Amino acid sequence: MRLDELQGTFCALVSGPGPVAPSVWLPAVLGSDEVADSDSTVAETIDLLLRFYNETAAALADGEAPQLLFYPLAEDADDLDYAAWADGYLYGTELGDVEWDVAAGEHVDDLADLMEAFYFLAGAADDGPMNASDLRARDRAVEDIPDMLVAIHNFWRTKLTPVPTLRRDAPKVGRNDPCPCGSGKKFKQCCGDPTGMH
Asked: 12 near 90, Cβ under 8 Å?
């Protein structure tokens, strides 16, 4: 896997609905034969990959996108290969045990809107030469990537953060207890009456 594809994959892995262990993604990015090898070069490569993963995770946790890596389409080309990066991101969404669209539940349309730029960039290369309108749309999608990375990361953090339990400072007033407003009436006939104006 190239470094641009790897960065896209890592951005998805650290943002998703569930953790994906290195034992899952290392064989996917290196190849299973490489991970099984005990060569010191492989150990050094794994160490570098883990550092790259952690740097990506730290940037997104701080609310920032990492500095994005895009390779040229060809050695002498000025155009960059955005599709490879986007393919890496989409690949990363499929590596975990939890399916993103299932985990998003009723918010799946919101997630699809956030990921639209990645789908566009991944598919744009398959559509052949781009006209001026396509190039403008591609450039907008590329500009949106940093914001979308942070938004998707926040989407999953918000969705996965449990809602805190509401704690009362004062004991709950029973229906037949005296009303705390001091009227002398029972709570159900005073402030606890849903039809009453207080």
From this structure: yes
Q: Which residue type, as a one-letter code, is found at position 130?
A: M
* Angle at the Cα of 119 from the Cα atoms of 13 and 154, rounded to 5 degrees: 45
* DSSP 3-state of 147: helix
Helices (H), the chain: 3-15, 22-30, 32-36, 40-61, 82-93, 100-104, 108-124, 132-160
Contact between 122 and 87 (Cβ < 8 Å): yes
How many angstroms separate the CA atoms of 114 and 12, rounded?
12
Which residue's entry shows tokens 């939890």? 98
C-alpha distances (whole Å) from 42 to each of 6, 9, 35, 47, 136 are 16, 20, 7, 9, 42
Other residues' Cβ atoms within 10 Å of the Cβ of residue 157: 12
Of residues 127 and 160, more confidence is placed in 160
Beta bridge partners of 72: 80
CA distance 190 to 193: 6
Question: What are the backbone dihedrals phi and psi of residue 180, each rounded to the nearest 5 degrees, phi first?
Answer: -70, -10
pLDDT for 130 beyond 80: no
- pLDDT of 166 reads 65
Confidence check: pLDDT of 27 > 80: yes
